[in-house]
Recover the amino acids of this structure.
């Protein structure tokens, strides 16, 4: 069986169809190239925008870091100033406490002994003792041949101060064996002594001394009897 030969019209139509497809491919290629270029442009713009934002963020962080450094320096300077003020105030309190002990508490304790008919032979302030791994500090030690009074001095007396002085009194003769045959008495003195703390100290057997104007007064009850340690 013979195959029909294509006519001129058939070849012409094929040629036109091929040309049309080729034209479509060219158009698609141009569209693809256009889209590629557009995408490249957008990526470039995005990259520039990202870089700009990065630079802006970097600058902002730098400015914030500088501001933070400035604030920290100001606060450090303010802290130093306040620490100096606090140190000065603490020094002033220490000086006042030292003057309180020297000019008010010491003569009061001496008079207290004298009122008991006891002559005072020695007065020692700032006694520090270390022996056999133990240590005590006594603000004021008033002594005669048979008795010794250990005085704890504070700006404001608390129950914790009283408890600490009880422990100190329990160790006193062991730490100061030169007075092992003496009667040891305890006293607490302060510029401010709350009433309840005064009562608590008295219950522990301590003399209670408190500042009153330009003098120091004994705050113990009339029937108070000091505890001998």
């Amino acid at each position: 069986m013979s195959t029909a030969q294509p006519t001129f019209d058939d070849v012409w139509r094929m040629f036109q169809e091929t040309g049309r497809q080729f034209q479509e491919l060219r158009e698609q290629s141009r569209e693809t190239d256009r889209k590629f270029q557009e995408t490249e442009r957008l990526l470039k713009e995005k990259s520039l925008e990202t870089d700009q934002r990065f630079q802006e963020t970097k600058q902002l962080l730098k400015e914030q870091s500088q501001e933070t450094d400035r604030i920290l320096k100001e606060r450090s300077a303010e802290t130093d100033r306040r620490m100096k003020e606090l140190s000065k105030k603490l020094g002033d309190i220490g000086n006042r406490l030292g003057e309180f002990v020297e000019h008010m508490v010491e003569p009061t304790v001496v008079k207290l002994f004298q009122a008991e008919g006891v002559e005072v032979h020695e007065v020692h302030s700032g006694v520090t003792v270390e022996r056999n791994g133990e240590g005590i500090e006594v603000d004021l030690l008033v002594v005669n041949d048979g008795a010794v009074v250990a005085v704890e001095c504070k700006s404001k007396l608390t129950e914790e101060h009283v408890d600490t002085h009880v422990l100190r009194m329990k160790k006193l003769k062991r730490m100061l064996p030169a007075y092992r045959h003496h009667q040891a008495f305890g006293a607490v003195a302060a510029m401010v002594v709350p009433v309840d703390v005064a009562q608590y100290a008295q219950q522990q057997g301590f003399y209670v001394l408190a500042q009153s104007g330009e003098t120091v007064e004994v705050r113990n009850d009339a029937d108070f009897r000091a505890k001998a340690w």
Q: What stands out?
A: The beta strands are 122-131, 134-143, 147-156, 183-192, 207-212, 215-218. Residues 69 and 75 are 10 Å apart (CA to CA). Residues 90-95 have pLDDT under 50 and may be disordered.
